[in-house]
């Protein structure tokens, strides 16, 4: 058991018969009244984000999780298949446990969060950034780089993202997996 003073970003707790991770929190001590902790928590099973307020000193059930490295292999009607990089065991995860399936690339290293006591997978976390090649995009107009306009582009995993006009087919780019946004071109 932990209290609200132990709350930190990334901590996993059991709340309302579900497992949540703390996205952000803020200890608040108003001038009048009791202190409390305002949190934003994300469900590991559904992906829903909730705002919740705990009174100061409230006890929360901390869930011990383990992060294990896996490599993405392929997907089929059984789910998305991953291989443990240490034991070579294979694991099939349903699409509901994965945030950005459109940015998964064969051979990509990911982390799977496991419930330590039950040894069950909770969710799959992608790396913060991925590097992919653009397979299709319309060519940009010459001299049209003064504005901050974006155009659609398809990357090798099949995802469609917005890129600046100067990015062309065959370019290798860096993508933020949390937002799906273009970051920069990568020199090859």
Report on this model:
This protein has about 190 residues and is mainly beta. It has three domains: about 1-60, SH3 type barrels (Roll), CATH 2.30.30.30; about 65-125, OB fold (Dihydrolipoamide Acetyltransferase, E2P), CATH 2.40.50; about 130-185, Nucleic acid-binding proteins (OB fold (Dihydrolipoamide Acetyltransferase, E2P), Beta Barrel), CATH 2.40.50.140. Helices cover about 0% and strands about 55% of the residues. It contains no helices and 16 strands. The protein has strands at about 1-5, 10-15, 20-30, 35-45, 50-55, 60, 65-75, 80-85, 90-95, 110-115, 120-125, 130-135, 150-155, 160-165, 170-175, 180-185. The relative contact order is 0.13.
Largest sheet at a glance? 6 strands, antiparallel
> How far apart, in Å, are the first and last alpha carbons?
50 Å
User: What's the number of structural domains?
Assistant: 3
Helix and strand run? EEEEEEEEEEEEEEEE
Poorly predicted regions are: none
Strand content: over 45%
Please bin the fraction of helical residues. under 10%
Write the SSE topology.
Elements: E1 2-3, E2 12-15, E3 18-28, E4 36-43, E5 49-55, E6 59-62, E7 65-76, E8 79-84, E9 90-93, E10 109-115, E11 120-125, E12 129-137, E13 150-155, E14 160-164, E15 172-176, E16 181-185
In short:
This protein is mainly beta. 0% of the residues lie in helices and 54% in strands.
Structure keywords:
188 residues; mainly beta; SH3 type barrels; OB fold (Dihydrolipoamide Acetyltransferase, E2P); 3 domains; six-stranded antiparallel beta sheet; five-stranded antiparallel beta sheet
């Amino acid at each position: 058991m932990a209290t609200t003073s132990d709350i930190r970003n990334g901590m996993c707790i059991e709340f309302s018969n579900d497992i949540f991770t703390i996205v952000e929190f803020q200890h608040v001590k108003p001038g009048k009244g009791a202190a409390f902790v305002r949190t934003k928590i994300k469900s590991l099973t559904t992906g829903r984000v909730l705002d919740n307020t705990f009174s100061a000193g409230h006890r929360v059930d901390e869930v011990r999780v383990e992060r294990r490295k896996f490599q993405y292999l392929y997907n089929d009607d059984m789910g998305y298949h991953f291989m443990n990089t240490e034991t070579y065991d294979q694991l099939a995860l349903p699409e509901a446990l994965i945030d950005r399936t459109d940015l998964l690339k064969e051979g990509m290293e990911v982390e799977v969060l496991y419930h330590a006591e039950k040894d069950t997978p909770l969710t799959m976390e992608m790396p913060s950034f991925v590097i992919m090649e653009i397979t299709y995009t319309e060519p940009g107009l010459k001299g049209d780089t003064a504005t901050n306009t974006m155009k659609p582009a398809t990357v090798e995993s099949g995802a469609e993202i917005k890129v600046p006009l100067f990015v062309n087919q065959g370019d290798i780019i860096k993508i933020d997996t949390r937002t799906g946004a273009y970051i920069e071109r990568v020199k090859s």
